[in-house]
Amino acid sequence: MEGTSTTVPFKNLHSREYQGHKKKVHSVAWNCTGTKLASGSVDQTARLWHIEPHGHGKVKDIELKGHTDSVDQLCWDPKHGDLIATASGDKTVRLWDARSGKCSMQTELSGENINITYKPDGTHIAVGNRDDELTILDVRKFKPMHKRKFSYEVNEIAWNMTGEMFFLTTGNGTVEVLAYPSLRPLDTLVAHTAGCYCIAIDPMGRYFAVGSADSLVSLWEISEMLCVRTFTKLEWPVRTISFNYTGDYIASASEDLFIDISNVHTGRTVHQIPCRAAMNSVEWNPKYNLLAYAGDDKNKYQADEGVFRIFGFESP
């Protein structure tokens, strides 16, 4: 099998649950060293968790307080394991130091922020809001460098590994490919028959994947901008996707009550993780086969559980 010397024994692996938020968790993200996980919640906080991939110790978490609305998405500095940026419905974007739990910088933008991503070299942050406006921040000054409003629905955003291309997934079923930093249009890929919701970049830089409202995930070769295969296991709109650290597996999730893990090279499902609710966020660890996932879980009283889980441990 291309790229993989060993297949991962997914069926022998277990999930663990992490509790701390008061409302549902919208976003989970690992830091670049794979040792910390951040969770962002409707309860207006983010939390940072120290995760030992093989350990079983009591997990300590730090609460990041200050936002006055839901923390919809968060992302870690790709070069610095202790810096994290959060985007919130309160219009602010904040940068935090994971060691102290203190907010080091913040800036107020023009709308409710729903998407945030770092450029792979850590110098810029892109933020998307509910009004389809894209803002690029210079991380050092934490000030907007570019702003652009689009006439169509813009969903998730991403840079390629070299930072020369910037991708927007749109409500029209297309992926807009822009040159960076000019943001000049390079290509419009007609990817799906319904809106494109999420995008993930293969850590090896070969592919990107797009999840759509048509319940499909498409896999694209970056060099040729061609669709090489589709993953068809889900039956509901695809909300979240992630490649594992070797680029051999892709996880995708929706309102289906399982997370699909497929082999990138064959397109075949290798494992399904059962879940109890629609998923909001899945993300693989950058160093280990640990998959964090969070959704709309409710308790028996129909209140939000505020949990996330991590799959991939050898013992429960």
UniProtKB/TrEMBL annotation:
UniProt organism field: Quercus lobata
Q: Name one GO cellular component term.
A: THO complex part of transcription export complex
**Gene3D superfamilies per record:** YVTN repeat-like/Quinoprotein amine dehydrogenase (2.130.10.10)
| Placement of WD repeats on the sequence | 18-52, 64-106, 189-230
Keyword annotations for this protein, in alphabetical order, are: Repeat, WD repeat
Q: What is the lineage of its organism?
A: Eukaryota, Viridiplantae, Streptophyta, Embryophyta, Tracheophyta
Q: Does the keyword Glycoprotein apply?
A: no
Stored InterPro entries: Tex1/THOC3 (IPR040132), WD40/YVTN_repeat-like_dom_sf (IPR015943), WD40_PAC1 (IPR020472), WD40_repeat_CS (IPR019775), WD40_repeat_dom_sf (IPR036322), WD40_rpt (IPR001680)
Presence of keyword Nuclease: no
Q: Which domain of life is it from?
A: Eukaryota
Q: Return the similarity comment.
A: Belongs to the THOC3 family.
| Name of the protein in its database record | THO complex subunit 3
One Gene Ontology term from the biological process aspect of the record: mRNA export from nucleus
User: What PANTHER family does this protein's entry cite?
Assistant: THO COMPLEX SUBUNIT 3, THO COMPLEX SUBUNIT 3 THO3
